[in-house]
Design brief:
The complex is a heterodimer. Chain A is of the alpha+beta class. Chain A has a domain at 27-117: Beta Barrel (OB fold (Dihydrolipoamide Acetyltransferase, E2P)), CATH 2.40.50.140. In chain A, 17% of the residues lie in helices and 34% in strands. A six-stranded mixed β-sheet of chain A has the order 5-3-2-1-4-6. Chain B is α+β, with helices and mostly antiparallel strands. Chain B has one domain. Chain B has five helices and 15 strands. Chain B has a nine-stranded mixed barrel with strand order 1-6-7-8-9-10-13-14-15. In chain B, strands 2-4-3 form a three-stranded antiparallel β-sheet. Chain B has a two-stranded antiparallel ribbon with strand order 11-12. The longest helix of chain B is centred in the first third of the chain and has 20 residues, at 2-21. Chain B is globular and about 65 Å long. The chains are: A alpha+beta, B alpha+beta.
């Protein structure tokens, strides 16, 4: 009986474990069958918790579409000196990720920013270990502080 | 002799000064400040380690492995490549994470787990109780008829996992805490999602039917150590899941925490969990809380929680498609 319950729990947990590495389950919000690869200019950055949102205007034959792209909690980046002023309106970025399950684009299209880069491939947001805890230099992505 | 006397005087003065700076204005040991428990060390010991204490070589290997792993998951696509349909939707760049870069040290020794007991570094789960949680797990991750069916983290009620505790465990980001003391009280503010646990010094527990978020905590001082006992955990906080830990805290759970300021920059945080309904034995752990630069940022989770509306809208759209 114990073994059966252990198996049941592990199966359930294993099935959903990948959903719990953040504030919410990504698969509940975004559609794995609706991948996106968009290039556009930043029109607004909402620097809010629990997730920052970058608004990107994409222009194609059918006109202009604004996408809201979900990022993570801004606290980490703010702590490392990165603010909304780091990503100014007009900046061109490439967003690769998945569209929201709603797919309605009403009133605005929504996607997750699984990979957000500048056109040259460099990352828009460079992270670090930074909680302000002593930096050990083992993380090559750590921002250097004066 | 005169030089020796002066030297003794300086040493004595600096010791006295250190003692003074480690006390609050009302005389309690001073734990105040902003602290972090971000670390690669997790609650349970990964299978690749055989002991609690690991070598510097093993610790460096863990740091290198994590850095390489982050690099890999942070660059999922080649230049020009598009995400493929049917794959895991992932999340966002790991720049947003803050999971630490190395295993933590206690007494100068790297640790492979927060758990110190049981000695194998694994939670002594009673699988019968854990198996009974499967249906609620299923509902939490699949149902979206209204907000209250979703997890507490998604609802911005408390942070995910056991970030707010007790016991306070590290997760992938927002591993920051602010401790503020006043006569008779110690308050611990958890950055995610802006939860405050107010510990009543020499207080008595609330009646059992009152179960606050983060439990009901009372404390007392044993020398320079703050000892906190927490019971009456909120029933909706039974199962606390994060990628780095999963714990079950039933209505029987009692947590004892010990906070000891070991230096200007560090608090030793120890805890034990006694819950005979979910575990075969008591489990204990310890980890350092290191001083963090800067301050806690307001989380304001509800106000910006667009994700909840998107999750519910997504569920409605799926229903429409399946009709």
């Amino acid at each position: 009986m114990k073994i059966i319950l252990r198996i049941i729990f592990c199966l359930f947990f294993g099935a959903f474990a990948f959903q719990i590495y953040a504030h919410h389950a990504f698969t509940a919000e975004f559609d794995p069958n609706a991948p996106i690869n968009i290039t556009g200019k930043v029109v607004k950055v909402e620097w809010i918790n629990p997730h920052a949102w970058v608004h990107v205007e994409v222009e194609d034959e059918s006109g202009k579409t604004v996408w809201m792209v979900e990022g993570g909690t801004p606290n980490t980046l703010i702590r490392n000196g990165i603010t909304k002023k780091t990503l100014l309106p007009g900046t061109i970025i490439i967003v690769r990720g998945y569209q929201s399950k709603g797919r309605l684009c009403l009133p605005i299209c929504i996607a997750n920013g699984r990979d957000v880069t500048f056109p040259d491939g460099s990352k828009v947001f460079m992270g670090s270990s930074g909680t302000g805890a002593p930096r050990d230099g083992t993380d090559p992505r750590e921002l250097k502080r004066e | 002799m005169k030089r020796f006397f002066l030297f003794s005087l300086v040493v004595t003065a600096s010791c006295l000064e250190a003692e003074v700076t480690m006390k609050t204005w009302f005389g309690d040991p001073d734990l105040q400040g902003t602290w972090t428990n971000a670390s690669l060390t997790t609650l349970e010991r990964p299978d690749n380690y055989e002991s609690l204490v690991v070598t510097e070589e093993q610790a460096n290997a863990a740091a290198s492995f994590t850095a390489a792993f982050i690099e890999e998951i942070d660059n999922p696509y080649e230049k020009g490549e598009s995400p493929k349909a049917g794959e895991n939707v992932g999340g966002y760049n790991t720049a947003w994470f803050d999971q630490g870069t190395q295993l933590f040290k206690i007494n100068g020794e790297y640790r492979s787990s927060i758990l110190t007991y049981p000695e194998d570094g694994k939670l002594p789960r009673k699988w019968i109780s854990w198996g009974m949680e499967a249906p609620s797990l299923y509902r939490m991750f699949t149902k979206a008829n209204h907000p209250e069916q979703r997890s507490l983290g998604e609802r911005c009620v408390v942070g995910f996992g056991s970030s707010g505790g007790p016991p306070m465990l590290n997760v992938l980001y927002n591993n920051n805490y602010q401790i503020v003391q006043s006569p008779g009280y110690v308050m611990i503010l958890v950055e995610m999602v802006h939860d405050a646990r107010i510990i009543r010094i020499k207080g008595t527990h609330l009646p059992d039917h009152i179960r606050p978020w983060l439990g009901d905590s009372v404390g007392h001082w044993e020398g320079n150590t703050l000892v906190v006992k927490t019971k009456n955990h909120h029933l909706q906080q039974r199962f606390r899941a994060a990628i780095r830990h999963q714990i079950l805290m039933t209505e029987n759970a009692e947590v004892t925490e010990r906070f000891t300021r070991t230096s200007e920059d560090e608090i030793l945080y120890e805890f034990s969990v006694d819950d005979d309904k979910a575990y075969k034995d008591v489990w204990r752990g310890e980890m350092p809380l290191r001083k963090a630069e800067g301050k806690i940022y307001e989380y304001a989770c509800h106000e910006g929680n667009y994700a909840m509306a998107n999750i519910l809208a997504g569920a409605r759209e799926e229903e429409r498609r399946n009709q």
